[in-house]
Amino acid sequence: GFIIIPCPQNPNTICFVDNCYGEFVEDREPPAVGADLIAGSLIKNPGGTIVTAGGYVAGKADLVEAAACRLTAPGIGSTGGATFEQNRLLFQGLFLAPQMVGEALKGNHLTAYVFQELGYPVNPLPMTPRRDVIQGIQLGSAEKLIAFCQAIQQHSPVGSYLDPVPAAMPGYESQLVMAGGTFIDGSTSEFSADGPLREPYIAFCQGGTHWTHVAIALEAAIEAVGVRC
To answer: Which of 37, 49, 52, 114 is deepest in the core (most CB within 10 A)?
Structure first.
């Protein structure tokens, strides 16, 4: 609805969707319901947890080419550009992506169910339809948010000996604490968590290559934050 409504009012409207975190979650992508152009990151869902960098655009051919011309140069567009010899990883990651997204969604539902049972507000609710691979948990205090992220980091495959601490982050008004023990730097298809240090102190969990890994990390997170008082 929100996509097709503006078009009769202005036929020149271009509906451009940032599709990060949303790929392969539903049975249709935004262009199937009226979006003109979508873009996303390959270190998120469509990279299948193995692509190390890059992004994509998809949609109407003329708009895709316009975006490519902006990236490279007018007249060159998509006929040129560096792939950094990553084509095999790009295609393999795309092949793996639906399975990885499925694992992340299982982890999201488990996270939502467990923390709702402990008394914490969660969004989305457990066992409800999803639009992306992000799960929010309202922890209610800076101490619990930090403890939660530290527990996730301690049960990550990379940098488990590190303790996340709040720090300033470009684009955020508040300090941010982040657990990101991932093989790919900045990957949010692998299990990670972060949150800004401000009310209502929400931890945002993303990704997960195996729901069982999420379950193990959740055991530690539950011990770290306890039942909501």
So the answer is: 49
Q: Is residue 131 within 8 Å of residue 26, measured between CB atoms?
A: yes
- φ and ψ at residue 112, rounded to 5 degrees: -60, -45
pTM given for the model: 0.91
Strand 122-123 versus strand 55-59 pairing type: unpaired
Q: Where are the domains of the chain?
A: 6-88, 97-225
Closest C-alpha to 218, from 124, 132, 75, 120: 120
Q: Taking Cα atoms as reference points, which of 59, 60, 70, 72 lies closest to residue 29?
A: 59
CA separation for the pair 145, 131 (Å, rounded):
24
Q: How confident is the model at residue 80 (pLDDT cuts 50, 70, 90)?
A: confident
Query: 198, 192, 211, 210: which is closest to 151 by C-alpha?
Result: 192
Fold held by 6-88: Aspartate Aminotransferase; domain 2 (3.40.640)
Q: What is the Cα–Cα distance from 223 to 227, expressed in whole angstroms?
A: 9
HSE-up (13 A, CA, CB side) for residue 112: 20
What does the pLDDT look like over 125-135, one tens digit per residue? 999 999 999 99
Architecture of domain 97-225 in this structure: Alpha-Beta Complex (3.90)
**Strands across the sheet containing 202-206:** 122-123, 134-138, 202-206, 192-196, 176-179
